[in-house]
Amino acid sequence: MRAVGIVTAMRMEARCVTPLRVAFNQRISLGENAAIWLCGMGEEAALAAAEGLTAGGATALMSFGLAGALAPGLRPGDLVLPESIDADRSWQVDPDWRARLQQLLPVHLTVAGGTLASSKQVLTSATAKRELAQVTGACAVDMESGAVAQAAAHAGMPFLAVRAISDPVEFSPPPILLDAVRRDGSADLARLLPLLLRRSVTLGTLLRLATDARAACSTLSTVVRYAGREMGITGK
User: Fold this and answer.
1) Would you say 164 and 77 are in contact if contact means Cβ atoms under 8 Å apart?
2) Nearest of 122, 98, 123 to residue 111 by alpha carbon
3) Beta-carbon contacts of residue 204 (< 8 Å; ≥ 6 apart)
4) What pLDDT band is residue 234 in, cutting at 50, 70 and 90?
5) Cβ neighbours of residue 140 closer than 8 Å, sequence gap 6 or more
6) Separation CA 123–CA 143 (nearest Å)
7) Structural domain boundaries in the chain
8) pLDDT by residue (tens digit) across 128-162?
9) How would you class 43 by CB atoms within 10 Å of its CB: exposed for 0-12, middle for 13-18, buried for 19 or more?
10) Residue 168 Cα distances to 53, 164, 230, angstroms
């Protein structure tokens, strides 16, 4: 059986895979057939994680986590299982692996295919999302899958992306909020509270972001529960 290396950028994503407290930026074994790497956001961090998992014995790589919608019909909690990744070039997922995982999922999940775009930065406006959609034809975007796909291709191993929508086209994290987020995606309260006090960010915005993220994480947890064996995880 293949050994799956799972790359996650944020701590909330890693919690969907395992209840373990995952150490930051190192390989954590999940048993004989899987390991996870919580790397932080961005393609450079994801590439290092993918290479670290490969060096640790992974024979397949998975990019797992949240994504922003580029297609208007996608809502928080919808699942994206792309056939390809649009980054500096187009990378293909393993079609058989994708099909096997999808077949294990419950019918109540909304699953989209197509192209997942890779971005070097968080998209913080509907305009930026629509522009990227027009250029790439992609239905969703993240910052890590392109790098993981590249690492898998260079190593000659299967690749799969599993991404749940956390923000629709019309609603995105405000740019100023990014300064209050740690490398692992958790909130830095020392920076967040002054933004609230100055009303640079509203409580309503934070509540909506949290609600949408919970919907996405619920979907990711469902994927692990039903299709964990395709992630190399037993007992899920």
Assistant:
1) yes
2) 98
3) none
4) confident
5) 67, 68, 69, 70, 71, 74, 80, 82, 112, 116, 117, 163, 165
6) 10
7) 4-231
8) 999 999 999 999 999 999 999 999 999 999 999 99
9) buried
10) 31, 11, 28
The pTM (predicted TM-score) of the whole model is 0.94
The one-letter amino acid code at 212 reads D
> Rounded CA gap, 6 and 29, in Å?
10
> How many residues appear in the chain?
236
* Topology of the domain covering 4-231: Rossmann fold (3.40.50)
pLDDT at 179: 87
Lookup: tokens for 113: 């295919």
Please give the radius of gyration of the chain, using alpha carbons only, rounded to the nearest integer: 17
Q: For residue 107, what are the contacts with CB-CB under 8 A and spacing of at least 6? A: none
